[in-house]
Amino acid sequence: NAGVTQTPKFQVLKTGQSMTLQCAQDMNHNSMYWYRQDPGMGLRLIYYSASEGTTDKGEVPNGYNVSRLNKREFSLRLESAAPSQTSVYFCASSNTIRREQFFGPGTRLTVL
Amino acid sequence: GESVGLHLPTLSVQEGDNSIINCAYSNSASDYFIWYKQESGKGPQFIIDIRSNMDKRQGQRVTVLLNKTVKHLSLQIAATQPGDSAVYFCAEPYTNFNKFYFGSGTKLNVKP
């Protein structure tokens, strides 16, 4: 039981490049989330998915797209990376009843 | 305690002392709150939760207090240990049941 896994762990991009962050959970959770965390800051919600096939914007969705591929997987895409997107990205999941979120280890992204 | 902004509040305590971390929330209709712990380089981890129909909830060495009159939460850690050194976040829900706002966090330093 791996919980929430994220790939890659680290990534360096140049401005304008694109990439996809991958997230998978094996807890059979319905809800999945993408957050970003800037130095000394709390977590800010980028996108949320309540179930397979549904997605919803969070606080800071601009510059990002998501895909809920199936119940297990939720990916985050940066189409044209900008230095302002340098951050640590966390994926999380929860079930509908408990609401407690389980987090992955994070992806540390630097955009030059 | 927690505050919105760029500076992460820091609490320094001596090993063995009790710690109190505070959090102000914004929505008087929030029905549920969660405290998370984030160790350096890791994703946040659930500590304890509390529903709005409760004033107090106890876990193992942790207690959460809820004061709805002033919209304030506190996390008390008894007999603080070096392993408690981390950043602590409180989270309150959006109007959407399963989406949460995270506070900016309080860094706890435990001195041996």
Walk me through the structure.
The complex is a heterodimer of chains A (112) and B (112). In chain A, strands 2, 4, 5, 6, 9, 10 and 11 form a seven-stranded mixed sheet that branches. A four-stranded antiparallel sheet of chain A has the order 1-3-8-7, with no helix packed on it. Chain A contains no helices and eleven strands. With 112 residues, chain A is mainly beta. With 112 residues, chain B is an all-beta fold. Chain B has no helices and ten strands. The two termini of chain B are 22 Å apart. Chains A and B meet through β4, β5, β9 and β10 of A and β4 and β9 of B.
In short:
The complex is a heterodimer of chains A (112) and B (112). Chain A is built from no helices and eleven strands. Chain A has 112 residues and is mostly beta strands.
**Could you state the oligomeric state of the chains shown?**
heterodimer
The biggest beta sheet of chain B reads: 6 strands, mixed
Please state roughly what percent of the residues of chain A sit in beta strands, choosing from under 5%, 5-15%, 15-25%, 25-35%, 35-45% or over 45%. over 45%
Q: What class would the helix/strand composition of chain A place it in?
A: mainly beta
Label the overall shape of chain A: globular
Cα shape of chain B: globular
**C-alpha termini separation of chain B:** 22 Å
Order of helices and strands of chain B: EEEEEEEEEE
Largest sheet features of chain A: 7 strands, mixed
Using DSSP, what is the number of strands of chain A?
Answer: 11
